[in-house]
Input
Amino acid sequence: MRHRPQSILRIALAAGIARAALAAPAVPAAEARAAIAGKVRANAGSLGEAYVYLDGPKILASRSAAAEIKQLAKQFVPAVSVVQVGTRVLFPNADNVLHNVFSRTPGDAFALGPLKAGDRPAPVVLRKPGHVEVFCNIHPRMRADILVVPNAYWTRVRPDGSFHISGVPLGSHRVVLWGPTFSPMVQRIELTSVGATATFSLVGAARRPHANRDAGARESYDE
Ligand SMILES: [Cu+2]
Output
């Protein structure tokens, strides 16, 4: 039985590998994370509504994630929303007049058709990250801005210009500053275990005029 010692060796090796596998933790160690802190400089009182998010891989929102933008007093309420990709967005008509809600934003376009007072149309699922512009076919002044973010790493900038996103995996990230009234700004940061800082300046930045429904100005995003 010339091959027997080899078999024993193989078994021993296999046992060794099995032991090594058993010794390894069954669950990989938690991914190292840290916080991104930052500041948006703006002229006093001019910051308005602003958000910071991390551009990167799409992570769908949980199935239960939902947001509501109602039609009330011939306006969309709220006028600005941030939702994670995959979120169901409801557009109930809380007015006594007819509305007709639609978006032509590529990748997230929809048309709900005529909505009577009290109608609650089926939710719209927004699948493409970016800035989605929503209008009403009947009332040209009605407008809603939705920022569809690719993942859960986003926050609203505080009135003093500071922001903080915690629990972010270490590595290189594209930090985006977005608001409905200015062009988005992007900054790349390297997040280490001690954290990272991102600073944006809106001082002197051009205000973005609100596009009407035909202009459809739009940013591009990596996917
Ligand atoms: Cu309307």
Summary: Residues 31-59+151-223 form a domain with the Immunoglobulin-like fold (CATH 2.60.40.1120).
